[in-house]
Task: inverse folding
């Protein structure tokens, strides 16, 4: 076997080359960083980064199929002390005459009471609730599937549209949801937690539970629902978070 002996000159040349490459790369990284931060913002994120988020969305959106279900857990795994996070839109007193307002495609509105919503078929779900802040909890929720609700109220033309928007009664919190995620079989208009009436700080009378999304999209205390072919305003997307926020 022939062992290659490196002479000192070769080693020196390689060392010099490594340093040159290293400094050129550092220079490029610095220039890129300078360039990136000189870019304008778009929806709370620097424009090039927002473009990457939009690209990601295009790649992952078709993966949220109706067949793909989020993992569920047995009832006894559900946390009894459920964490409360986020009070935007909950700071104003709740109107005792609360009704859910639904705006049809035509602009007509329907007002629906909690009792009417409770008459629809009920679905329970125990799943791992994840917040972008880095915590998660297995929790138990009950309500009507958004798709069942849409069917019952004949929102057929509405669910042909691209997005659903939901807003708290005081407009202090709002989310935009892509339609495939809204009509996903695990997405519910929720009025129960751990088999009991939803607590006020957890969104009484009605909140969204949408297991295919991070916590920010699970809007508490829904006041109105509307439909749109353009992205509805979204509280956290305006602060620079990804709009889609799918899991
Ligand atoms: N109205 C309203 N809904 C909201 C929020 C909020 O601030 N206001 N925060 C969101 C966030 S970031 C999370 S993680 C979940 C937390 O739900 P929980 O308080 O029931 O745990 O609610 C979401 N829904
Ligand atoms: Mo969150």
Result:
């Amino acid at each position: 076997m022939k062992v290659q002996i490196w002479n000192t000159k070769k080693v020196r040349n390689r060392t010099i080359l490594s340093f040159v490459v290293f400094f050129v790369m550092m220079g490029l990284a610095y220039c890129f960083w300078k360039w990136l931060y000189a870019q304008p913002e778009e929806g709370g994120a620097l424009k090039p980064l927002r473009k990457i988020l939009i690209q990601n969305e295009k790649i992952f959106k078709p993966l949220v199929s109706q067949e793909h279900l989020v993992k569920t857990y047995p009832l006894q795994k559900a946390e009894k002390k459920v964490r409360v996070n986020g009070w935007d839109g909950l700071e104003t007193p709740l109107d005792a005459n609360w009704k859910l307002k639904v705006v049809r495609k035509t602009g007509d509105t329907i007002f629906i009471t909690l009792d009417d919503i409770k008459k629809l078929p009920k679905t329970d779900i125990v799943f791992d609730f994840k917040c972008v802040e880095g915590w998660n909890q297995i929790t138990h929720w009950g309500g009507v599937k958004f798709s069942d609700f849409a069917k019952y109220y004949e929102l057929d033309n509405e669910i042909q549209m691209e997005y659903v928007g939901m807003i708290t009664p005081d407009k202090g919190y709002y989310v935009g949801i892509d339609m495939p995620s809204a009509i996903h079989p695990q997405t519910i208009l929720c009025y129960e937690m751990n088999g009991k009436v939803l607590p006020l700080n957890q969104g009484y009378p009605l909140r969204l539970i949408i297991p295919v999304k991070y916590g920010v999209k699970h809007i508490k205390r829904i006041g109105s629902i509307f439909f749109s072919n353009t992205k509805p305003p979204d509280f956290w997307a305006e602060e620079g978070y990804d709009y889609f926020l799918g899991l």
In short: The helical segments are 8-37, 47-60, 114-118, 146-152, 179-182. The CA atoms of residues 237 and 243 lie 5 Å apart. The pocket of molybdenum atom (ligand 2) is lined by residues 85, 131-133, 215-216 (CB under 6 Å). The first helix runs from residue 8 to 37.
